[in-house]
Fold these 2 entries.
Entry 1:
Amino acid sequence: MEKPDKELFEKIVKIAQNRGFVFNASSIYGGLRSSYDYGPLGKLLKDNISKLWWESLKTSDIRIYPVDTAIIQSTDVWRASGHLSEFSDPMVECKNCNSRFRSDIVLDPPCCDQQDLTSPKNFNLMFETNIGPVKNENSQVFLRPETAQGIFVNFENVLRTMRAKLPFGIANIGKSFRNEITPGQFIFRTREFEQMEIEFFCKEEDAAEWKQYWTDKRLDWYINLGLRKDFLRLRPHEPDELAHYAKSTTDIEYLYPWGWGELEGIADRGNYDLMAHQEKSGKDLTYFDSKDNTKHLPSVIEPAGGLTRTVFALLLSTYKEEQLENGETRTLFKMNFDVAPIQIAILPLSKKDELIIICNQINSLLSTQFRTEIDVTQSIGKRYRRQDEIGTPSCITVDFESLSDNCVTVRNRDTMEQERIEINSLVKYFKN
Ligand code: GAP
């Protein structure tokens, strides 16, 4: 097993900014700490990952219903779910410099030379805001800290309208917000991030089996996405670190440049949430089992992943440096064809009109089925380097011979091998 590589972190942050994956938010005003904007390639990458996540949920054996729920819900939701009272981190403040930290994370290095910390206080992580023109207690609302509660409060709606039968899942993807005391490590921990969550409803006696099913399935999904298998591991939570709603949790962890950290958590939430919402709302959230004419609150297995954290892990995992024969180093992201922001780059050898025309024709041929881009700036060597560095698996080069033989050169990112392919066969070639 390889050791974590601290230098890698700096390199990824630099490439992400220089190549258009991730920018500091509000950068023209000096930036807002720990807030990030996704550039054209980052947005594509994020969308591709989320699409692959949805696709992986379309299996023949179980039914997963998609929802897209509001970021701002009634405050009653957070009261019932326990987030108002429980969703906090222990915070300490330095009496000398007033810096604030999570007391469960060791300070390294100390904030100032007279570090003198207060005793820990619980700090609620939910962002508060107000709805409507009048700001008072009744208008106070919170930005959701997890997409999960949007699912629980719609359990009965989905059950009724979709005539759902146990076991089944409901999946939600989108932004969540946490006023993290110590955000950082680039897009690993931010105050605004995206989650991809499934609440899988099943009978209590089947919960352990379904937890295993989802743990295996989600781990495989990350491996198929292109994350290094030897940089992934499963870690069951110790009893004292369980979230307030969880009976048991297993984390899928990734080996980040600073060490192991969470990528996704698979929790057995029991019927904690449905019970809480049933009690507080007074609505019947039980499931009627027509087989034995009984009613019960289903158990829940929750695979909760971070979309933006997955973007980061994928960049880290697929980054490679290779020594070329001429002594230069080429850097590349070895991303799978499915997930790469650009799948095929079309490069004219020169900017002459006749070559550009062919490039445009090839682009019309391919762009309906693949993510393509025509790249005309700089020398062909520099363009290959740029495409390698944004993870493009294939480059098509159009040269003067293409005018007569109707063929182009296709270069493979990983092997750098080149093949001459007929323009009319390109769609078939890339489909294979
Ligand atoms: N509904 C359960 C839940 O939210 P969680 O472990 O707090 O569980 C799930 O969050 C995932 O969301 C994490 O595994 C991580 O990938 C992502 N996540 C959580 N907080 C984050 C943050 N501040 N920045 C980026 N991603 C975060």
Entry 2:
Amino acid sequence: MRQAGRSLPEYRKVRGGGSILDAIRTPDLATEITLQPVRRYGVDAAILYSDIMTPVASVGFGVDIVPGVGPVVENPITSSADLDRLRPLEPEADLPYVLETATAVAAELGEVPLIGFAGAPFTVASYLIEGRPTRTWTRTKAMMHNEPALWAELLDRLADQALAALRAQVVAGAAAVQLFDSWAGALAPGDYERFVLPASAKVLGGLADLGVPRIHFGVATGELLGHMHRAGADVVGVDWRVPLDIARSRLGPGVALQGNLDPALVVAGWEAAASGAREVLRHSDGHPGHVFNLGHGVLPESDPDVLARVVDLVHTEGRADGQPSLLDP
Ligand code: CP3
């Protein structure tokens, strides 16, 4: 569960004030925070405590993550001169603390896999261009359409950074990787295919030789699922807007799915969360290619006890036998 730690009192206790980037740069702290949701919830995997903006921040681009707001960029990208601030990433030199955290976490976890991650080129580019979170992505889409050469160069640089970051995380101990294209659902399928898919395919394709499962995630991407799979994903993230049986009919039986409980149902309380979780399991119907997850990150106001009970419910009632249920049409 992404950002599962946000709702935990033990997270708030150790996190301290200041930028999350400072916490990420402190391996002892980042290791402890990565392990907290595993201890508390007994989930089947851990996700590295870092952020999609860590690589660009580490090459000195000039970005901060403001609590309650999200990534904020002082000088957003407007022209090709700004690309000079995006040099190639050298993970061992630029992100030693992330690799140290991944190594320590993997050693602590033993059999439980660590999921490494990076931001996909489109979603990271959207923050670098807009300067802060947006609901319309107008500047981003304007650059994509009006300055396609600059756009392509920007996405290519971000693809190289994401690929380098992910490869280094796998070498350090990550057993799977997730590429977060959280806001790709803002795009028309044709624009995704033309302006975004090539860069994401460079990242996912560049990981193929490592043999780790590649998860590709976005929000409101129901119409993009096929493209996101074709970009080179083994597992496609689905949010709550598309039932898993429909997602599976779009992608075919050979593709694993991740999702897709609505995070708001966890906030609503145990009754709503339990019936939502059972609905997800019913739609997956014992298919072995299913990673149960929320459709997006845990909301900060979630009750940890409700989340713990959701994990227990999935462990108790989830099936992966591949046998279609006869009882529940
Ligand atoms: O569970 C975990 O701790 C996993 C680590 C993780 C974080 N960010 C830490 C974080 C992961 C996997 C991310 C990914 C991330 N970051 C994404 C992709 C996933 C998604 O949610 O769609 C995106 C878009 C970001 C950018 C970002 N960082 C946003 C929009 C915010 C929210 C701002 C806010 O305060 O509400 C952040 C901050 C952030 N990153 C927090 C955490 C735990 C919460 C605030 C904090 O503790 O400072």
